[in-house]
């Protein structure tokens, strides 16, 4: 499982996996090779979401240049798996990615630069003006995704794509948001981002190269109605918090930078201190693409 360290690596990446025995080896290979080349120590947490195939055994037997550890989540649902994974991290920078690595891993460089600059939430967006999207599924799914994101933009910090499986956070903020997460299905991204926004954290979207991969477990026919129910619950909870007493201070250890978007319950003007890491641990800020 790679070299063990006495403490947490500066970066931990969660990979939720439900019956991913076919796609996981290639995905982990790409991710570990990328992380091994970064100037910052990294670890991977694969969350086996009650798989019935050989997903867990692949992780247990994995050997590579970075540490990969296995976490079992018996509660079904991608949201449940991501929540369990994020809460199991200890690193100052955390995030999650899909097992198929549909988002090109070059985006990690820009994400790390922006996190180092104090951006508390950095997400990949297929609808960014500089993104390259290849083979984006069926037209009905594309239209549904556009409609979905227009409905939820006010909850998720104004980003035009809430569902890209590439999201990174300042560690304390990400864990606090995950602790509040209640949505277990495919709409969990919206709730997770809304918990960040209501803590006063702006969301920065970055361009990505994204390639559609076969084998997605999401089905427009089977999951759309549940997504609508989930969104109604998320919006109802966000509305309640808007009129509730102060949600309390934002988690220590992250800074807001760029354009803050005030969402439900957000504390306007709150700017916590920056996360302190040595400059030598992360790439330089030259060439970083703005969100």
From TrEMBL:
Family annotation (Pfam families):
Glycos_transf_2
Q: What keywords sit in the KW lines?
A: Transferase
GO annotations under biological process? protein N-linked glycosylation
Transmembrane intervals? none
Polar residues: compositionally biased ranges: 281-291
Q: Which residue ranges does the record assign to the Glycosyltransferase 2-like domain?
A: 13-164
What the entry lists under SUPFAM superfamilies is as follows: Nucleotide-diphospho-sugar transferases
Task: Region Disordered: list its residue ranges.
Answer: 261-291
- Its recorded name reads Glycosyltransferase
Q: What is the lineage of its organism?
A: Bacteria, Bacillati, Actinomycetota, Actinomycetes, Streptosporangiales
């Amino acid at each position: 499982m790679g070299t063990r360290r006495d403490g947490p690596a500066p970066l931990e990446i969660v990979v939720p996996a439900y019956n991913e025995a076919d796609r996981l080896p290639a995905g982990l290979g790409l991710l570990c090779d990328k992380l091994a080349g970064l100037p910052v120590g990294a670890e991977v947490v694969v969350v086996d979401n009650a798989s019935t195939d050989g997903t867990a055994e692949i992780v247990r037997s994995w050997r590579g240049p970075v540490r990969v550890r296995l976490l079992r989540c018996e509660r079904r649902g991608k949201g449940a798996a991501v929540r369990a994974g994020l809460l199991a991290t200890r690193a100052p920078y955390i995030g999650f990615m899909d097992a198929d690595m549909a988002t090109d891993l070059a985006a990690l460089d820009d994400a790390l630069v922006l996190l180092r600059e104090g951006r508390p939430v950095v997400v990949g967006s297929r609808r960014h003006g500089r993104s390259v999207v290849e083979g984006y599924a069926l037209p009905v799914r594309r239209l549904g995704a556009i409609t979905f994101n227009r409905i939820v933009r006010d909850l998720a910090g104004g980003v035009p794509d809430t569902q890209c499986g590439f999201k990174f956070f300042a560690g304390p903020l990400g864990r606090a948001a995950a602790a509040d997460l209640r949505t277990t299905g495919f709409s969990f991204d919206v709730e997770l981002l809304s918990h960040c926004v209501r803590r006063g954290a702006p969301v920065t979207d970055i361009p990505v190269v994204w390639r559609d991969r076969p084998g997605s477990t999401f089905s427009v026919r089977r999951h759309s109605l549940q997504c609508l129910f989930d969104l109604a619950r998320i919006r109802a909870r966000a509305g309640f918090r808007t009129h509730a007493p102060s949600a309390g201070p934002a988690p220590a250890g992250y800074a807001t930078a760029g354009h803050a978007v005030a969402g439900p319950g957000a504390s306007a003007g709150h700017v916590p201190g920056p996360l302190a890491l040595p400059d030598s641990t992360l790439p330089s800020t030259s060439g970083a693409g703005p969100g």
